[in-house]
Amino acid sequence: MLTGAAVALPAAVLPAALVPAASPASGAAPGRPDLAALVTVRDAEAHLRAFQEIADYNGGNRAAGTPGYDVSVNYVAGRLRKAGLTPTIQKFSYPYWAERSDAVLARTAPSRASYRLGDDFVTLAYSGAGDVTAPVTAVDLPARGEGTSGCEKDDFRNFRRGSIALVQRGTCTFETKADRARAAGASAVVVFNKPGERGPVRGTVNRPGAIPVVGPSHAVGAALARAARGGGLRLRVRTDTVQGRRTTANVIADTEQGRADNVVLLGAHLDSVPDGPGINDNGTGAAALLAVAAKIEKLGDGGLRNRVRFAFWGAEEEGLRGSAHYVTSLPASRRRAIALNLNFDMLGSPNGVRGVYDGDGSTRAGTRAPAGSGAIERMFRRYFAARRLPTAESEFNGRSDYGPFVEHGIPSGGIETGADGVKTAAEAKAFGGRAGKVYDPCYHSRCDRLRNVDLKLLDTSLDGVAHVTQHLARTTVAVNGGARLGAARTPSSGLDRRGPYLVR
């Protein structure tokens, strides 16, 4: 999730104009409570233990559509009620997809080789089912770099119908590549990773497909590309999947105080993947919201001039389904009333960084966020800088629930500590940990338990969440002038719904 992250300088070497004059430990106005001091990591840890227990008693996970998720919804709703809020459980349906048995990727000619599921390749989410043995046609593979393999209709001009399409990840979505390959008559699609990316492609074609789609690593894909150029390459691709629809829910709760036409929305996804309990991903984000919700009423009417909304999203791991349903189902007037969205997804990665979403577009990577997002980024960065805590840039790449808000022109921001990206040497120097290793080695795995969470990193993340929330609950002037005023927003373009299952 932290592609191309850049480490920020500590406050000691920042220009004075970038360091707030107020006490670095306080987001409070004089004489008012400090939310960052009120909310403690012990509060969050108690919720993490509850999420772990829920998973342990419900098949080892809290995935959408499972008993573990339903119990998580009940737990969150109960904690919100105890905090004095009135939660709404918003049910919705979404496309369901699962693998019934292990996929197969094997070379059958000109030589034979079998590839290891999980290490060498995985099935892309929403792949169709099938067992295909056929010749391979390489599709516009780049000589170097990312390229646009399989993105254009002309890429398949000379495609051999019935063959397996070999394409490289890059530029367009997996969905686009798979759709173009199927339209050209492909019997299966093999999308291998681009240079510089480790491991197989853990992605999604975003909606139920008709043909098998698998994602090998760059090393495997590059070897297949060389064999395809030599001629006679044949592969077997087998996927055993089931598709349908399921029903799950979001949990939403507002503070009683604050302007209903200028809502500060805090969001975190509540579901895990089926393979594990999801305590870092994303029990940490959900626990942070619950910890803040339990103390926010202490700010009083003067500190809650804007309404604060807590949103726990369902089926994020299925492609941002819950947040997308919420945003698109809102009447236009209520959507305009959302001043901004703060998103918190993975706040305690064991080899993590302190990633702040790139609201001002300074990384020139990912999607440019709507106007006002840069102000949110500055709030987080200034707070951490004043505490001499380094930060890293985290691009808006569509991998979490800010996606639907950005698409609808709503200013967005937040923090995250890293998923399956690899920590750089510069990041290891700034944050500690091990360079060359992933931020969270238990990402989307059964070992994503409480012991997988760096509680010290979670503690500072929680402080940042509370500090910025308190500031924005009092005023959103820096983000949007302080009022919606019925102004129309221009939706952003070019952002794909991906979730941690990537779509490109």
From TrEMBL:
Gene3D superfamilies with a match to the protein in the record: 3.50.30.30, Zn peptidases (3.40.630.10)
Pfam family, one: Peptidase_M28
Span of the signal peptide: 1-28
Domain PA stretches: 132-224
GO molecular function terms attached to this record: metalloexopeptidase activity
InterPro entries linked to this entry: M28_fam, PA_dom_sf, PA_domain, Peptidase_M28
Biased segments, Basic and acidic residues type: 495-504
All copies of domain Peptidase M28, residue ranges: 250-468
SUPFAM superfamilies to which the protein is assigned, alphabetical: PA domain, Zn-dependent exopeptidases
Entry keywords, A to Z: Hydrolase, Signal
Residues covered by region (Disordered): 485-504
GO annotation terms (biological process): proteolysis
Protein name: M20/M25/M40 family metallo-hydrolase
